[in-house]
Amino acid sequence: MSLSRGAFIVFEGLDRTGKTSQTRRLYNRLTEKGIKAKLIHFPERSSAIGQVINAYLTNAQDLPDEVIHLMFSANRWEHINGIRQEMLAGTTFICDRYAYSGAAYSVAKGLHFDWCCSPDRGLIKPDAVIYLKASSDEAIASRGNYGGERYEKLEFQRKVGVVFDQFCEKESSYWHQFDACQSEENLHAEIAAIVDEVLKETPSQSLAKLT
Ligand code: 2DT
Ligand code: MG
């Protein structure tokens, strides 16, 4: 049996740490090297579930914390079979936010950590998590105003950051932390070096699940 699957590379971090620019840069780099890659962003707002999430995030709709938490997870589940199929056929996915955002934002609101993790158990486990960590929240806030979406408040972001830090410490075998306050160029170079290493290993490894 020959395994030559693509990799699953997840980017995590607070709002405005540069995830979207860095995922694009990485995507361009891989594509230029002839590596088949796709970009995906959670929440994926176009599906029926995604539209409810969008209404919630833009404050057009209120939902109990538990309900929106399960919606975010369901939004991953509705896309995961398609992702798995393409990965097994060789496509590498670069994913802007994943289940760790799911847990971090809900735990920051006061929901129980284990309860938050359980709906995502069984999803594809990333080969690497690229964690963009702001060395100072103020530096990030000063990059420009947060948008008007729910969660885009400094005090709340700090609480979310604590949970990301815990994941990074506990899951250190595949989490890689980067300083989000350096130049976009440097950050890209550091990320590219790690991803090159990861891509050497993944084709021969079978897919794992979140536990
Ligand atoms: P973006 O700004 O990246 O579109 O995210 N979020 C995200 C959750 O609360 N749970 C999740 O499972 C995911 C994937 C983070 C919009 C906001 O949605 C939050 C910020
Ligand atoms: Mg945002």
From TrEMBL:
EC id: 2.7.4.9
Annotated pathway: Pyrimidine metabolism; dTTP biosynthesis
Domain Thymidylate kinase-like, residue spans: 11-191
Gene Ontology biological-process entries: dTDP biosynthetic process; dTTP biosynthetic process; dUDP biosynthetic process
CDD domains: TMPK (cd01672)
Name of the protein in question: Thymidylate kinase
GO molecular function: ATP binding; dTMP kinase activity; nucleoside diphosphate kinase activity
A Gene Ontology term for the protein's cellular component: cytosol
Record's keyword annotation contains Nucleotide-binding: yes
Family of this protein: Belongs to the thymidylate kinase family.
UniProt keyword annotations, A-Z: ATP-binding, Kinase, Nucleotide biosynthesis, Nucleotide-binding, Transferase
Classification via Pfam families: Thymidylate_kin
Top-level taxon in the UniProt lineage: Eukaryota
